[in-house]
# Entry
Amino acid sequence: MKTQKLIVIAAIVCLLVGASGAAMARNDCPDGSIVGGARVEIVIDEFVNCTVVNVTVTRRVQVANADQFTMISSKVSGNVQVTNTVSAALINNEVFNGNLLATSNAYSSVVLNVVNDGDIRVNDNDGRQDAIVAVVQNQVADGNMWVNKNEKADVKENIVRNGDLKCFGNDRLDSFFNNTIGGTEDCRSSIGD
# Structure
């Protein structure tokens, strides 16, 4: 009887460990792309390539540990967070009531996005020494834009309304034609100094 109970307990433990391990790795982009339509959320936590085009997301986009992630012309009500990828390209998206975050990626392109009631943050908080970012022609309303701790950062032609634009700790910063309305800008170029 004791042996039978031990076998049952061992089987339950194995099932629980296996189930929790499977739940940790998630890929909502198994075919490599999501085009059109609506989703509640997009979550990717695998080393995969994914392109998202013209998708409406009602909750969040969360990508971690991917190879290449590209999101183009999509609308998100909530946070967009791309972390620890080789390449992150966020182009021509609209984010409402959430933040657009690109952190600890080797390469990040954040271009032509509109964020309302949230921030754009492009940071290398984990100490990646080779982070190169382009933050170009974005608009933020009622939020902030922070570009911090990158190897090279191009921060150009962005507009921030009712918030601040800050660039700190970038090894090389090329910044010009940014505009803050109702906030402060501290994002001076270090290239050519």
In short: The CA atoms of residues 8 and 14 lie 10 Å apart. The chain has one domain: 29-186. The first strand starts at residue 33 and ends at 35. The two ends are 79 Å apart (CA to CA).
